[in-house]
Amino acid sequence: MRSYSSATFLLALPFITVSGFAHAKSELHQRDGDMTIDVTNHYGVPLQLSFGVNAGFPNFRGDPQPTTLDTDATKTYAVPSGWAGRINVGKIDHPDNSKIEGSFYGAGNGDIDVSYVDGYSVPITCSAGGKVLSGCNLELMDRGCIAPDRVAAWGPDGKPALCANGMRGSDWGPPSSFFAPCAGAAYTFPKDDMANVGMIPETQISCCVGTSCDPSPRQHKRDLSRTKAKAPSLMPRQHKLHKKIHAQ
Fold first, then answer.
1. pTM over cut 0.85
2. Using CA atoms, how far apart are residues 79 and 148, in angstroms rounded to an integer?
3. Quick one: CA torsion of 3, 1, 85, 31, rounded to 10 degrees?
4. How far are the Cα atoms of 40, 52, 99 from residue 11, in angstroms, in the given order?
């Protein structure tokens, strides 16, 4: 699912704990038949969440706005049938952050993926039914963000907060050297469709932020995050798996 950073950002829901799930439904404005998305922060520092919805599609329940997700905390969001949108996640609030993207058209017709098409800020994987569906838990920032990518913003610690993806306008890639370790696990260019397993039956999605989160079976088996990025190869490459892109 292609990432779009020009979305309208909306409002934060109250913190929901697993132990409080009995009353979470009312706090979430959740209704029967909704899909829920948990976001858990195992990154080690507080993170910023913001929200976008595709034009003409229904909103998250409760109209969430940008919010802070504390370390080791979880927040849960509900979406109705017909929804398509995204959650931006990063150390600062920025449109090029890593994204959780999805669409939902009722049970059996949900879709979720992790996108680094706009840029990479933090590692994310999303799971359902005990299996990782999409994402990459490798910390890429240590590799060095070099051309065609660029550091788009700096954090309060004086370190790069995110690396903007220089290949976002190249539908078929290839991924840059910086993003290559996560290619096929998270979206690293617009048609990196191996990062999307397609429609799923589950309506409870769990997304985890951090390197301790379960890895995708499609990411590099060896942790390449601490090897430096190199100048990219410009040889054309196409993935043969071509899935429907839901966010137009």
1. no
2. 36
3. -160
4. 18, 10, 16
